[in-house]
Design goal:
The chain is of the alpha+beta class and 410 residues long. Helix content is 31%, strand content 31%. A hairpin with a 2-residue loop joins strand 6 and strand 7.
C-alpha cells in the first residue's frame, strides 16, 4: 500500500505542499502542462532550491505578468482565503469562471471533480464566516491566481503520485494575529478553522500564521487519517519551503512517500482474573470505568456458577505488563475479592487505522483493520452513524448502509 505522509511541524501552505511534492519527484514540466490547460493567461511557475535552517528544500513560486495598468498588490498584503506567506497578485477570477476553466482543462474527470469541490469548500467557508450566501462571496476571496495554481496543481500532483493512503501529522497553526482584507484576525484565521474538519491542530509561540486556509483545505481533504509517521519503507522524501524565515526552525513542509509496513511483532499483555459472588452488582459498572482510566486495555465480565452452587461473575482484565500492579491494587481496593490470578501472554493484533469516508449525508469514520497490507475488516464508528441518523432523522440501519456503500465505492 503506497503511503504519503505530510509532516506539518512548521504548518502548511499551498506553495509548500507543491514544493514538497516537486522535491519528491513530481516533474515541473508535467505540472506546468496540466496548469496550462486551464487557459489562464499571463502567469508562470518556478521551483528553486533554497536552504531553510540547514535543510535544502524546493521553493515553489507563482509569477503573474499583469496587463499594463492593472498593477499588483503590495508585497506582504494579506489575503483572507490564501497564504499570507505569498506576495499576492492583483488579478482574481470568479468562482463560476474557475470551475468552467477546470471543466475545460486536460485534467482527468476525477481530478476535475475534486478540484471543483475544493473551490466550493473554500467559498462555503468564507460565506459561513462572513454570514453571506456563497454566490455573494467577493471574488478576491476565492479566485486569486496563486490559489488556483496551488489547488489545481496539488490535485494534479496527488493523482500523479497515486498514493493509496495519505496520513497527515497534527497541524501547527502558529500563533499571534494575521492581517486580512477584513481586518486583524487571531491565528488560526476563521476560514482556516472552518476548513480544518477533524484535523488535529496545535499552536506555538512564533507569533506568526503557519497554517493557511489553502493548506488546511488541501490537507484536510486528502487525509485518510491523522497521526504520527506510520510504519513504512521510505522511498522518497521531499521538502517544500515557505517564504518566511523562522527563528531556529526550518520553515518547510516535509512529505515522506513509501510502502506501508503492516507486519508488526506480537506484544505481551498481562491478564488478571478473579471470580466474585458477594458484591453489589452496581459496583461492576463503575469499576470498569476506573479500570480503563487506570490503563486497562480491555475489561469484561462473564457469568459463572461458583462453589456452593452460587451464581457469580468472572472478571477478566487485560492490560500492559507495566500497569499490572496498579490494576491489581484497584481490584483489591474496589471489590470484595480476596485473591486474583495473573499471567503474561502474547497478543497479536491486526494493524488498525481510522479512515474518514464521505457519504451523501456527511462524513463517517471507519475503523479499518489489515494484515500484510490486506484490509480484512472495516466498520463504521457507531457514534458517527448515530450522530448522522439523529441529525438527518433517518433510521440508524439506513445510515449504516449508506456508510458501507460509500466505503465500497471510495
Amino acid at each position: 500500500m503506497k503511503t504519503l505522509y505530510f509532516d506539518c511541524f512548521s504548518g502548511a501552505a499551498g506553495d509548500m505542499i507543491l514544493g514538497a511534492l516537486i522535491d519528491a519527484g513530481l516533474p515541473l514540466a508535467d505540472l506546468k502542462r496540466a496548469l496550462g490547460s486551464l487557459g489562464v493567461e499571463d502567469w508562470d511557475i518556478s521551483a528553486d532550491r533554497v536552504v531553510k535552517v540547514g535543510i535544502t528544500a524546493t521553493k515553489f513560486r507563482v509569477h503573474e505578468h499583469p496587463a499594463p495598468g492593472t498593477g499588483t498588490v503590495a508585497p506582504g498584503t494579506a489575503h483572507p482565503a490564501l497564504s499570507t506567506q505569498h506576495s499576492l497578485p492583483h488579478k482574481h477570477y470568479h468562482l463560476a469562471g474557475i470551475k468552467k476553466r477546470i471543466d475545460q482543462s486536460a485534467l482527468s474527470e476525477t481530478a476535475r471533480t475534486r478540484a471543483k469541490a475544493l473551490f466550493d469548500r473554500l467559498a462555503e467557508a468564507e460565506a459561513s464566516v462572513h454570514s453571506m450566501p456563497v454566490e455573494k462571496v467577493h471574488l478576491h476571496e476565492v479566485g486569486a491566481l496563486d490559489s488556483i495554481i496551488d489547488i489545481v496543481g496539488t490535485v494534479f500532483a496527488m493523482e500523479w503520485f497515486g498514493a493509496d493512503r495519505v496520513v497527515v501529522s497534527p497541524l501547527n497553526v502558529g500563533g499571534g494575529t494575521v492581517h486580512t482584507a477584513h481586518g486583524l484576525y487571531p491565528v488560526p484565521a476563521p476560514a482556516t478553522l472552518r476548513l480544518l474538519g477533524e484535523a488535529p491542530v496545535y499552536g506555538d509561540t512564533t507569533g506568526k500564521e503557519l497554517l493557511t486556509p489553502t493548506g488546511a483545505l488541501l490537507l484536510s481533504d486528502y487525509a485518510t487519517s491523522f497521526g504520527p509517521l506510520p510504519a513504512m519503507k521510505v522511498d522518497r522524501i521531499g521538502y517544500g519551503a515557505g517564504d518566511r524565515d523562522l527563528d531556529g526552525r526550518p520553515n518547510v513542509l516535509r512529505v515522506v512517500i513509501g510502502d506501508q509496513v503492516t507486519d508488526t511483532p506480537g506484544t505481551r499483555v498481562a491478564v488478571v482474573e478473579c471470580e466474585i459472588d458477594d458484591m453489589n452488582p452496581q459496583i461492576f459498572g463503575a469499576l470498569m470505568d476506573r479500570l480503563y482510566a487506570a490503563g486497562a486495555l480491555d475489561v469484561f465480565y462473564s457469568s459463572v456458577q461458583m462453589k456452593k452452587n452460587r451464581p457469580g461473575t468472572l472478571m477478566t482484565i487485560i492490560g500492559r505488563p507495566a500497569d499490572r500492579d496498579a490494576l491489581i491494587d484497584l481490584v483489591f481496593r474496589e471489590t470484595t475479592t480476596i485473591g486474583v490470578r495473573h499471567s503474561e501472554v502474547a497478543r497479536e493484533c491486526l494493524a488498525r487505522e481510522m479512515v474518514t469516508v464521505t457519504t451523501p449525508i456527511g462524513k463517517v469514520r471507519f475503523k479499518v483493520a489489515s494484515r500484510n497490507g490486506d484490509v480484512l475488516n472495516a466498520q463504521p464508528e457507531f457514534d458517527d452513524v448515530l450522530r448522522l441518523a439523529t441529525e438527518q432523522q433517518r433510521p440508524i440501519k439506513d445510515v449504516q448502509a449508506l456508510a458501507a456503500k460509500a466505503w465500497l465505492e471510495r
